[in-house]
Amino acid sequence: MAFFLTSWVITVLGWIVHVFLDRVPDRRTKHRVIELLLLWMLVVTGVFGLSSGIMHISGMSGMLAEGIGYAPSMFQWEVGWGDIALSVILIGTAWKSLRGTWMTAAVVVLTIQYGGDAIGHVMQYVAHDNTAPDNVWAIPSDIMQPIIAIVLLLVYRAGQRKLAQTTQPTA
Q: Is residue 170 part of a domain?
C-alpha cells in the first residue's frame, strides 16, 4: 500500500511545488499547469516502475512475488523488463526535446500495460481470493493512472492546438 500511496503523494506535492516555482514565460496558465501535472504523473510513475522492474529481475523477486500473492516464476523476468521499458519512455517525457513525440506514446503504453495489470489483479482477487496487499492496492492505481493520464493528455493536446492557432500569423 505504501508503495502506491507514496507515488501519488510525490506526484501531487512535486506538481504543486513545480507550479509555484516554475519560471517559464507561460507559467500558471491552464495549459502549463496541465502539462506539469501530466509530466509529474508520467515521470514519477516511471521512477516507481523502474524500481519495481529492477526488483522483478533482481534477487528481490521472491519477496516481491510474495507481496503480490504470487509464486516466484520466470515470468517476473519478463514483467520486470516490461516495467523497465515502460519506465524509460515515461521518464523520457521529462526532456523537452522528447516530450512532443514521446508523450502520446507514453500514455498509450501506460494505458495498455496498466490496464492489463488491473485486469490481472482483479482476476487474482476475484477468482483466487488473492488479498495480498500489493495485489489489492495495485488495482486503484492501475485503473486511475491511465484514465487520468488520458484525460490530461487530451486536455494538454487541445491546449497545444489552441496555442498554435492563436500564434499563427493572419493574412
A: no
Number of domains in the chain: 1
Judge whether 7 and 14 are in contact, CB under 8 Å: no
What ranges in the chain are assigned the alpha helix state H? 2-21, 30-57, 61-68, 75-92, 96-128, 133-136, 138-167
Domain hosting 103: range is 2-162
| pLDDT tens track for 137-163 | 999 999 999 999 999 999 999 999 998
Tell me the per-residue pLDDT of 114-138, one tens digit each, with 9 for 90 and over.
999 999 999 999 999 999 999 999 9
Instruction: Please report whether residue 153 resides in a domain.
Output: yes
pTM, two decimals, is: 0.88
- Its sign, for the CA torsion 74, 44, 32, 96, is negative
